[in-house]
Every structure is written in structure tokens, then in C-alpha cells.
TrEMBL record:
Protein name: Thioesterase TesA-like domain-containing protein
Domain Thioesterase TesA-like: residue ranges: 62-262
InterPro entries the record matches: AB_hydrolase_fold, TesA-like, Thioesterase
Length: 268
């Protein structure tokens, strides 16, 4: 195949992938709007991204921003036989935004997960701060096959940022994800971000008796990797940075790495 024709094929493939991702994001937004109309007490964090499939479901916990949007495209690349659920912060959907520790967040999410999968070992994962929540969920539950930690960097010591620092971090985080927020959206999402960051930075992870796999990016600092060696059975490097790993073409490599790690667990 000539170079020009190959380029055209790749462009069409990329355009088709972007179309599928956009449609899936629109579905998730519609689900979020419907859930936001529910009474606060009934808002569930669980979002089914791909509920069908023969394999054990994978539950992915949101990052500190609270949204499951980064997982929408990823779920579609993990295979037709892989069910995927995500956990979104209820504060984005009409639920109360509470100042609580990370173990309390993990306990609430674990209860929702066990409603969806009452029996059998869980397959958990999470990006950024979501990896720390997933790890704590595994510690609390005990019956977990694997925790897939996606580029989670926890500090050497607890950090207590002030509001100005949190606003700066929030703006940086939104820019990294390409999100442009109006005043109303900022007012809704910043308190969720601030509460999650405080919970994450005030938490020290404990070792868990299950398989933990870290998927980190090419630019991960060595001190961050060193802290994970006490927790992770394996460390795998994927292309991109903390944000572009969820964008094409890097998201395909991330999906492949996750599929491989899940397959390793399923054949044990």
C-alpha cells in the first residue's frame, strides 16, 4: 500500500474513532443530566459505560475532577466482551459536595460497586486520584483480583493546599483536559475538585493484599515511581503524558495495556 493511501486510511480511521467518542460522550452527558434531576439522596456514583460482556466487569474511579468523561473513549476500546462501569462524583449530578476523607469516599463507592457485582473478586482501576480511591476500595473489600492504577502520583507527605492554590490547580487541570468552563460550570465543578484534592492529598495509601499494577507515562518522575514500588507488583510505561494518554493515538496504547493486564488476571 502506498504511503499516501496508508495516510488516507489512517485519517479515516481517526475520524471514525473521534465520531464514536463524540457520540458516546453525548450519551454520558444525557445520562448525567437525567441523574442530576434525581433527589440528592438517590444519586448513585455508578455510570454504565459498557454494561454488556462476558468478562468480569471493570470499575474505573473518577480522577479528582470527579467526571468519568476521560473513560468514555477508553471503554469503547477495551473490547466488546469487556463490561466497563465508571464511578462519578455525585456532586456533579446534584448530590451533596462533602468534605470527607478518602476512606469514606472509597466506602461509598464500594457499596455502589457491590450492588452491581455482589459476588466474586472485583476488577478496579482509576486515573490520577481515582487510582488512590480504587486502592483504598481494595483494602476495604478484600476480594479484589486486580487494581489498575493509571498515572497516580501520591505525595511523600500529606499536603494541605489553600483555596488559591486549589483554584490554580483546577484551572491547570481543566486546561490539560481541554475543558473551557463558563462561570456556572466552574461554580459547580470547582467545589467537587477541591474536596477530592483535599481528600487525596491528606491520604497515605496502605499496602493491600491483591495485585496492583501501575500504568505510568513516559515523563513520570523517578521519585513518584519509587514510592509505588512498595505497592505495585508491576509497572508499565505507556505513551503520552498525564492528559494526552487519554487522547488519540495514545489512548489506543493505553487500552491495549489495560486489556493485556486484565487478560493476565483472567487466566490466573
Amino acid at each position: 500500500m502506498s504511503g499516501s493511501r496508508l495516510s488516507t486510511v489512517e485519517e479515516k480511521r481517526h475520524a471514525l474513532l473521534q465520531l464514536r467518542l463524540r457520540r458516546k460522550r453525548e450519551e454520558v452527558v444525557a445520562q448525567r443530566e437525567e441523574r442530576s434531576r434525581e433527589p440528592q439522596a438517590t444519586v448513585s456514583p455508578l455510570v454504565p459505560l459498557r454494561p454488556a460482556g462476558a468478562r468480569p466487569p471493570l470499575f474505573l474511579v473518577h480522577a479528582v475532577g470527579g467526571s468519568v468523561a476521560p473513560y468514555v473513549g477508553l471503554a469503547g476500546l477495551l473490547g466488546d466482551d469487556q463490561p466497563v462501569y465508571a464511578l462519578e462524583d455525585p456532586g456533579l449530578n446534584g448530590g451533596a459536595v462533602e468534605a470527607r476523607g478518602l476512606p469514606a469516599i472509597a466506602a461509598a463507592y464500594l457499596a455502589a460497586v457491590r450492588e452491581a457485582q455482589p459476588d466474586g473478586p472485583l476488577h478496579l482501576g482509576g486515573w490520577s486520584g481515582g487510582g488512590a480511591i480504587a486502592l483504598e476500595m481494595a483494602r476495604q473489600d478484600g476480594d479484589v483480583a486486580v487494581v489498575l492504577v493509571i498515572d497516580t502520583a501520591f505525595p511523600a507527605e500529606p499536603i494541605h493546599p489553600d483555596d488559591d492554590q486549589l483554584r490554580t490547580w483546577f484551572a491547570t487541570d481543566m486546561a490539560g483536559m481541554g475543558a473551557e468552563l463558563g462561570e456556572a460550570e466552574w461554580a459547580k465543578r470547582f467545589p467537587v475538585f477541591a474536596a477530592n484534592v483535599r481528600a487525596f492529598l491528606g491520604h497515605r495509601p496502605s499496602p493491600v493484599d491483591t495485585r496492583v499494577v501501575l500504568l505510568c507515562t513516559e515523563d513520570s518522575p523517578s521519585e513518584y515511581l519509587d514510592r509505588w514500588r512498595a505497592h505495585a507488583a508491576a509497572i508499565h510505561v505507556v505513551p503520552g503524558n498525564h492528559y494526552t494518554m487519554f487522547q488519540s493515538p495514545h489512548i489506543e496504547a493505553l487500552a491495549e495495556a489495560l486489556r493485556d493486564r486484565l487478560s493476565e488476571v483472567n487466566v490466573r
